[in-house]
Write a structure and sequence with these properties.
970 residues; alpha/beta; six-stranded mixed β-sheet; 41 strands; 23% strand; globular
Length: 970
Amino acid sequence: MAEIRLSKKQQLTFLISEEEGDGVRKIAQKVAKDVEKTTGLHPSLALAGRNLEQAVIVATAGNEKMAKVLQKRIPELQNLQGKWEAYGFYLAEQPCPGVEQGLVIYGSDKLGTIYGLFHLSELLGVTPCTFWGDAGHPVYERRILKNREPEEECQEEDCIFVENGISKEPSVKYRGFFINDEWPCFGNWTFSHFKGFTSRMYDHVFEYLLRMKGNYLWPAMWTSSFLLDGPGMESMKLADEYGIYIGMSHHEPCMRSSEEWDLVKGEDSPYGEDWSYLTNKEGLLKYWEDGLKRCRGHQVFPTIGMRGERDSKMLGEEAQIEENVRVLKEIITQQRRLIRENLEQDGQKYPLLFAVYKEVEDYYFGDSKTAGLRDFQELDGVTLMLCEDNFGNMRALPGKEERSRKGGFGMYFHLDYHGGPCSYEWVASTPVTKIREQMSMAYEYGIRDVWMVNAGDVKFQEYPLNFFMDMAYDFETWGRKEAVAGYARQWTKKQFGTYTTGREQEKIAWILEEYIRLNHLRRPESCNDKVYHPAHFEEGRRMLLRCEKLEQENESMLGLLRERKGEDAYFSMIYYSAAASANLLKMHLYGGMNHHFALQGKAVANEMGDRMEACIARDKALGEEMRAFKEGKWAGMEAACHIGFTNWNSEDWRYPLNYVVRLPRQPRLVVSRADGEAHYTNQYFPIPVLVDDFSTSERKKITLEIANGGQGVVKWCIDESCPWLTYSATRGETRLQERLTLTVNSELLPEGEQEFCFHIRAGEESVPVQVKAKQRDFSMVPSGCFLPQKGRYVIPAVDYIEKQDGNWEGQKASYERLDDYGKYETGMKVFPVTASFTKEQTGEAPALTYALWAEEEGCYELELHTSPANPLVYGGRLTVGLSCNEEEVTELILTDSTYRGGDNACVAWEHAMLIQEHVSTKKITLKKGENRITLYPREAGPVLERLVIYPEGKSIEASYLGPDTGFKKE
């Protein structure tokens, strides 16, 4: 049985024929280095060999000599003929003359061979993040590659079982990322480490892309010209060697970088001075022609079409759709001619891209007066790159009849964005559950030709970027909603598995996902001291506790890994981002508490201000720590602005204001509910603190705050007692503030509503507290009904009492649960994701029914909270059917026909992006007793997250996350 032994005592040769080319040899050298760093064995590379005890034989289909030899020895390799980027991976005895034991890596094409080589690195535990995430290399005394025989148990711990066979083809044909918004971070980093956007830097980018099984790159473009800065074409030549396709972004046609125009335009330039096809047609055509000539013979993926300079509209803000379409048709026709005449002279065909981005979507679909570009013949064979709304929410997707069009479709997704309503460019803020939910829709709608993701500065996006690329390569595995739940654990095992336990990996995965969850609730840049309410529903405290737990777990893990001298990867990929994110959110929370307590006249306000200032200092210190990490390896990457944006960008950013309370010299008693804004002090005509929760809800505990409004110490006590009410304390000495918890014992409550008044006294000061309680008898209420809590109901969408499947085009349509998703952590979405229903099809639609119990008949407001989805049909709406107690089905409107996802002129869209949800409100009437509310899907896309129902005219207290989930009769 064939095997390959890897240790310092062994010898290993990579046999790579001259036909393979420089790119495959360079990758083989990188893999050989992986073997050396993991096992101590220093492999050699050779064109041929004799009497070799063991070797890695590398070949690509079409490279005749070695390919024929290997196909004869392993006939299954013939199945790779015509496949796209696939490879055979076989252990074999005597695979070719002169080799006793061989590992055969045989690609269907160059990239297939490269992926096969890196598969060997993967088996040795080397991850794509070895450079970009400082994951390094695991170290072993030896590794043995062998096939597992039936029922065989390897007696050696060092075995790596290899399954001989042929890899899958990628799920998506072209897969890559965009280095964008690269200043100040990426730009400063590459200039200080590589003297610019050079081929030396791009070698690291290309290696990262290839280790993630990608094949397509949009290079940095804010101040860089990829085809000039290598220096010259060096970066392009390197991409050619590796088999990587180089394209330009959505507003850089004909392989001309945006910045290149500034270098060549001018009055005396053959290209003219204006970036305007109307006034400088011949100059631009010459400019594009020369750009295409330069790229002849290179592996490029040109963008066609035209937008304005610096990501703006081509003809300006006032131009009509009709005029833009007319000009674009001429531009595209001329560009296709230039491509045929200058790029495809040798008969080689190049993939072409037309980006339907931002305002171009209007030109593509047209309007009632203009047909648009949708059926324009010159776009046949061109990949149409669609785009989400820049915040990760799909917009118009291909209709059923379009999905088989020649050229296919692509999707441009964002992990980073520079634009309104708020830029997000700092650290990761997009959960992988969001990526899967949205990109699986793209895939099911037929977008399988190109997946491109804006990765910003690349650094600090390791986890979501790895997931995006894994999903693009292997959608069959990672497109399933059941699989994404285990991705974080699998990913952390790959990065840290050789020096952490399974339990520790679970903790790392939690830390990683929790900081991204917090950042996604509200993008860090758009957060401020007013987002999370400091009192209502104790929202500020709940978020603060989450931050503190994240910090504790993060610091503990870093300390543990430092003891093992294995902290580099953790610090680089997780610690800094998690620590800085938690600290930033704490700063805003403390700022909000500082303002809240100051308005209540409490001394603790100043303490909150001091804590806020400490967070500001900590933010700076963490940046310096990141900058110094590994002798400045990533210096510059920490420089992104991320605090208190008041605009879409960082202009006029600000720290929270610090309110200072000038305190009287003597102590002063101040009492308040922890979940309220009102405060109470000693008064000539006493005003009581009202606690009526024990009579209007199922709550058993309520917290009061006893605070000092002056200097010194408040010495307080409670003398009155009640058999059904207990206090967490009856006396205390308070310098700033402490919490007093009231607990009701329902079993000791007499019949009927009970009232009890006690006083919190401090010397001559006294504040009364009025408590109301009663035993609420819901024995007659059916199981599964939500009960009123202070007259309101908060129902997670997953807490339905009945789920009804539907029928869509002959197949089952059903609401299915999504976990770890959205603003409220769970949701319900219709599958298949392509299913949609008209009002007339309500009887065939799936449905969710919710049960609630009303003590009296009355008029209520119903709020439906959903994901911030966009209509998937251009110009369409998003609605949900609603029926209360089997009455006629009405519509909840999430977005109307004026809603335009991705358009900064659409106030409703900007608001939804900031708060991460849609909220639709409808008036309903509840009858006394049991009520049933049923929801029916209409258009595809939205995820139902929660229902909030409250008496008409009694709006719920302001907050970001709203009330806690209501009480359900079990």
